[in-house]
Inverse folding.
């Protein structure tokens, strides 16, 4: 519940090491920050860059100039360093479990056996292609389009396909689960990779086709080049029917509740009943279809394409999806294109790192339970929860002060804010892995059994109330999220580490860093898509029409702003695609600053090493986002991802905040300067 507890300087004790309450206790002395003397690495600053020209470079430029991206990564920065730390922490936990083992059927036994089996590439090499031979024979035996969809729908056969069916929350009724249908079927990241003739795309398509031909040859198929050409031609036809990536953000457009009869009517010749039966959904009469206008044409394309082409396509995608647990020659071939050429990664990560990643994907909460016992003390969770409440109060005041929102909608927005549920650190109830069988020395079989077990768990959700205790990230993940149907914000323990969250850092730094992230995730509840769910997570219209119009006017201006940023020559940001995250960044930082100012209780913060409190606030945010990125990965992010690149996640919000201009004396003529009337304030 929303608390109206005053935010005082000591209420950031969670971050500043001070006593909480109403001033009854004197502040406790802080320990030494993890970074610098107050939480900012001042050696990273490039004093030769004016803050008003490129704030990202000003705060981080010296670090960016003196660091390089490790050859096994596509980016390097604060988040990646936190991930590496979490990997090493988890490695110690997993290897202890692997060394000591555990009782048969215990989580420790499963962690140990899954890890060791994945780690033993020599044993995987020794088995060769034997694990996939039966599945490849099944594919080779497909004779009809019904055979094709039955194979695709069978649990454990998971492959990319033009029509995908999964189980998800009903966004119009978040208390239940329903089958969901969306489009898929592409090997390259997004449809424009097949459509664009600009710059590197013809070369990427040629590389993709060559990789496909090579992989088919490695699994013993003849005429790999001709088959690969047919596969790519098919994927280009699929891509033409896909929705643009920005359109897929529109939640009301991607919610279409259909009966099975209505689904059949989309493409009467497609074997829908066989597909649903193979998925174990034969008794389900309702399905939510995302890209409705694409489903019929895609289904018609499936039945219009010769089965022989589908056999080639399925062979390619089946092997590619399982390459990490197949012999090195398969694994390396897959990496050569998808790692090196597509993303610019120079070498594969160490096998132990990939084994940890695999365990995290299979048994993440079992690992997380051990992780939080060592690395996340209970007081940290309590402190983080208090900060959330501080941010909640600040957000409420920003809503009250909003010049574009009507009084009626403010009441409803306040209601939604009050019902925000924070989840901090780790779940209150751990996931039950008792039904998942892990066998020693069987990396491939473990992955297959995981897929089947996961799908059965999803099927078991149908007809049951939604599980609001479920987490969609592991406790040791270096990330956070907002979940609209549950109206919840989730901050895993792995993310609550310096420099994002440092109990000994200056409060201004922490408000800019973790405060900005909390504000960002809260802001998703009120961004252009999150705002379409009410206080109970129901997808519906709860704003009046005038508010919607005014909100769109403001957010359109923000989208236009970001669309002017050009990370690579000729490649601008898609301000519509990244709008939700940009709203979260801009609004979240505004709210975090509001909370910081409240915390000062009318007092001036100290000047530390020549920096004011306001400067440290913005620098804390910028430091958290420092990052180097390979060109290929940057291009992929711009074209497919909802987040703006790191530079623009700093410069974009800053240039819209009057306080930043004040803090760094930004003047007309500076590259980032915006006249006051062009600055966008959403919250």
């Amino acid at each position: 519940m929303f608390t109206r507890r005053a935010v005082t300087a000591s209420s950031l004790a969670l971050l500043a090491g001070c006593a909480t309450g109403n001033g009854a206790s004197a502040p406790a002395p802080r320990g030494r920050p993890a970074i610098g003397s107050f939480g900012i690495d001042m050696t990273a600053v490039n004093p030769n860059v004016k803050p008003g020209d490129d704030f990202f470079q000003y705060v981080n430029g010296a670090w960016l100039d003196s660091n390089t991206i490790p050859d096994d990564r596509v980016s390097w920065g604060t988040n990646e360093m936190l991930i590496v730390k979490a990997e090493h922490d988890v490695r110690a936990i997993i290897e202890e479990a692997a060394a000591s083992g555990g009782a048969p059927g215990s989580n420790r036994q499963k962690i140990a056996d899954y890890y060791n089996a994945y780690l033993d590439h020599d044993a995987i090499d020794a088995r060769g292609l034997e694990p996939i031979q039966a599945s490849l024979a099944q594919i080779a035996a497909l004779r009809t389009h019904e055979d094709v969809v039955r194979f695709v729908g069978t649990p454990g056969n998971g492959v990319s396909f033009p029509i995908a069916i999964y189980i998800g929350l009903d966004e119009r009724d978040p208390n239940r689960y329903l089958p969901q249908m969306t489009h898929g079927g592409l090997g390259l990241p997004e449809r424009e990779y097949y459509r664009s003739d600009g710059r590197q795309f013809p070369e990427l398509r040629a590389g993709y086709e060559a990789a496909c031909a090579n992989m088919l040859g490695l699994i013993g198929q003849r005429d790999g080049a001709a088959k690969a050409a047919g596969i790519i031609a098919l994927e280009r036809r699929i891509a033409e029917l896909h929705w643009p990536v920005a359109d897929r953000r529109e939640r009301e457009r991607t919610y279409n509740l259909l009966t099975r009869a209505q689904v059949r009517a989309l493409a009467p010749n497609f074997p829908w009943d066989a597909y649903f039966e193979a998925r174990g959904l034969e008794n389900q009469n309702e399905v939510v279809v995302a890209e409705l206008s694409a489903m019929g044409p895609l289904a018609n394309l499936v039945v219009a394409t010769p089965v022989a082409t589908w056999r080639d396509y399925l062979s390619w995608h089946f092997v590619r999806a399982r390459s990490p647990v197949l012999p090195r020659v398969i694994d390396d071939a897959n990496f050569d294109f998808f790692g090196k050429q597509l993303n610019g990664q120079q070498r594969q990560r160490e096998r132990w790192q990939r084994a940890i990643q695999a365990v995290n994907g299979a048994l993440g909460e079992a690992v997380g339970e051990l992780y939080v016992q060592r690395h996340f003390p209970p007081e940290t969770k309590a402190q983080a929860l208090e900060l959330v409440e501080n941010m909640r109060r600040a957000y409420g005041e920003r809503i009250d002060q909003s010049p574009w929102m009507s009084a009626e909608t403010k009441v409803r927005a306040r209601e939604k804010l009050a019902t925000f549920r924070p989840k901090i650190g780790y779940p209150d109830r751990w996931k039950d892995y008792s039904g998942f069988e892990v066998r020693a020395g069987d990396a491939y079989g473990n992955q297959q059994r995981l897929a089947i077990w996961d799908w059965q768990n999803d099927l078991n959700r149908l007809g049951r109330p939604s599980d609001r205790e479920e987490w969609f990230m592991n406790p040791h993940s270096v990330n956070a999220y907002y979940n609209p149907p549950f109206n919840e914000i989730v901050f895993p323990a792995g993310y609550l580490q310096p420099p994002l969250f440092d109990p000994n850092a200056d409060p201004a730094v922490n408000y800019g860093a973790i405060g900005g992230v909390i504000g960002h995730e809260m802001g998703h509840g009120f961004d252009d898509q999150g705002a379409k769910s009410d206080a109970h997570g129901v997808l519906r219209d709860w704003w009046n029409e005038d508010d919607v119009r005014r909100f769109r006017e403001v957010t359109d201006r923000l989208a236009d702003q970001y669309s002017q940023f050009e990370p690579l020559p000729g490649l601008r940001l898609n301000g519509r695609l990244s709008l939700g995250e940009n709203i979260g960044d801009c609004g979240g930082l505004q709210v975090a600053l509001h909370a910081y100012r409240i915390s000062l209780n009318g007092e001036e913060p100290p000047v530390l090493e020549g920096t004011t409190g306001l400067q440290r606030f913005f620098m804390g945010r910028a430091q958290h986002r420092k990052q180097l990125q390979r060109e290929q990965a940057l291009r992929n992010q711009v074209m497919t991802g909802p987040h703006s690149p790191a530079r623009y996640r700093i410069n974009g919000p800053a240039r819209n905040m009057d306080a930043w201009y004040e803090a760094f004396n930004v003047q007309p003529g500076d590259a980032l300067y915006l006249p006051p009337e062009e600055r966008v304030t959403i919250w």
